[in-house]
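Your task:
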Amino acid sequence: PPPRVGIRRQRQMCIRDSLMLMMDIRHPLKPYDIQMLDWARHIQLPVHVLLTKADKLKRGPATNNLLKVRKQLSDMGADFSVQLFSSLKRQGVAEAHQVLNSWFNLD
C-alpha cells in the first residue's frame, strides 16, 4: 500500500508518472524513504533521488555516499536514478532539470 501522503500531493506525484525523492545525503534511506521507494517500485514508478545538502560533505565522502545509495537502490531491484544535489551551491541543478525535462518530454 502507498505511504500516507496527502491526496493532493499523491495526485501531483502521479500525474506525470514519476517521483523525485529528496534525501539528506548525511542520512539517506530512512524508513520513510524506503517505504516510498518500495511503493514506487511496486507500481513501477520512475524515481530520481536527490541527495540534498551535498555541500555539507567533502567530495570524497559525498561520492562514497552516492555510490552506497546507488548500490542499495540497485539491490532493491528497481531502475532508480540518484544524484548529488545542493541548492546552496547550485550543485546538480542542471542534472535535476535534465531529468525533469525528460519526464515531461521537454528535451
Q: What stands out?
A: The first strand starts at residue 19 and ends at 24. Residues 34 and 73 are 9 Å apart (CA to CA).
